[in-house]
Design a protein that fits this description.
Layout (H helix, E strand, L loop, with lengths): L3 E6 L3 H12 L4 E7 L3 H11 L2 E3 L2 H7 L4 E4 L6 H10 L3 E4 L7 H14 L3 E3 L7 H11 L6 E9 L15 H4 L9 H11 L3 E9 L11 E8 L4 E7 L11 E5 L2 E5 L4 E5 L4 E4 L6 H15 L7 H20 L3 E2 L2
Parallel strand pairs: 1-2, 1-4, 2-3, 4-5, 5-6, 7-10
Antiparallel strand pairs: 7-11, 8-9, 8-15, 9-10, 11-12, 12-13, 13-14
The structure holds nicotinamide-adenine-dinucleotide (NAD).
Nicotinamide-adenine-dinucleotide (NAD) binds next to helix 1.
Length: 330
Amino acid sequence: MAPLKVGLIGGGGIASAHIRGYREHADKIGVTAVADARQETAAARGEELGATAYTDYAEMLASEELDAVDICLPHHLHRDAIVAAAQAGKHILCEKPLCLTAEEAADVRAAVRAGGVTLMCAHNQLFMPAVAKAKELLDAGTIGTVYEVRTTDSFYNDFDPATMGWRASSRTSGGGELIDTGYHPTYLMLHLAGGLPVEATAMLSTHRLKFMEGEDSAQVLIRFDNGVVGQLVTSWAYQPAPNTERFSVVGELGSLRSDGNSLTSRLRSGASETFDLEPNDTFVAEIGHFADSLLGGTRPLHTEEEGLAVLGILLAAYEGARSKTIAPIR
Ligand SMILES: NC(=O)c1ccc[n+]([C@@H]2O[C@H](COP(=O)([O-])OP(=O)(O)OC[C@H]3O[C@@H](n4cnc5c(N)ncnc54)[C@H](O)[C@@H]3O)[C@@H](O)[C@H]2O)c1
């Protein structure tokens, strides 16, 4: 039996990726209970994992001896699950977005503090080897003071309105594409910019997925307190043009650029280096990091603090788009 016992809350699509991580790190962490509101899903996941199945996560929290929960629910349910888990004294891994509004953010922060638990945001793209290498070079001052960060996460999404479910409605998704897939390039931007976000604005579009309530594409500008300006493009409507960077960072001494796999540094001095990095399963790395953080009592890469900073950027971006202004990050 692994030292850390986890209760999985929500056994849908993304749970499969997390389960790969638990299998890989079975010596440290394992799912011993699962809760899903759909009886068939709960039973199937329970059988797959050899875990006790529940249809009500409150009952799971009350009945099971757990160290942590892993929240893989639709967006509008994150806040309540975080608060319930923190009140039960369980550590938390939570899928993105952490929650949806400023009021929910206050509840999350208060509950995590009062519960004295560790919350890790499931920001899996931080575990891309190219991101880790870029962060290492930035921290070492390779390109000096950073001026600009650009991130892109766009793909041609063939969502079918009949099966899109909770993602089609702003009430349950919290917005549109930006607060869903667009959440990834936002936390990546925060990670690479190395400051706190101050103000943001956005242009939102619906190019193709007209059945969605929210936007299917977004372009966001963000200013950070250390002077960095970030530019982010994200879409479900279209594939980015060839050679569009996954992320890039420009500073006083040169730049870093990545397609998501390799990373190239190019300095004004003329020196250039390309790092070809071993691809990994970012979800497996994420679960390993969660286990190590809990076992070692160390701070996860992104806690609720970064999760709420990302939410702040997105709420300001939506506000900026609505009011056609640059909105402060609250
Ligand atoms: N990191 C990534 O790349 C990535 C990719 C996909 C999804 N996600 C995130 O994962 C989360 C879940 O997305 P998904 O694609 O797995 O969604 P999904 O709809 O496939 O799964 C959600 C599950 O939650 C269950 N559920 C709904 N209400 C419940 C309740 N009250 N109690 C217990 N279970 C309940 C549903 O029955 C379903 O099985 C979202 O936050 C999403 O943004 C992240």
